[in-house]
Amino acid sequence: MTPIQYDVCINKGTERPFTGETWNNHEPGVYACRVCGQELFGSVTKFDSGTGWPSFWSPIDKDRVKEVPDHSLFMRRIEVECANCGSHLGHVFDDGPEPTRLRYCINSASLKFNAR
Q: Rounded to two decimals, what is the model's pTM?
């Protein structure tokens, strides 16, 4: 892993917006966990949120991600982890598009893109 990948996945860091390798990717495929390889998000649920991080309105399956309360930085957020290995992925917010109205805001550094 690169230093930023390690910081994000293991130390629960965050990459700077508009710097990750997949934030602006529009190819068909699947986004997998950088650490264990579990497939997490499909390109069909990816959308441009304008935030500079890859955003998805749903994981491939809810059982593939774990949502954990996060009270760091004096905020109330919901952290998203890989349910298989516990790697930090990002956070989920309730300001996304239909049909879920969710925005899984995920760090590129925590994902490996597999084109299909």
A: 0.94
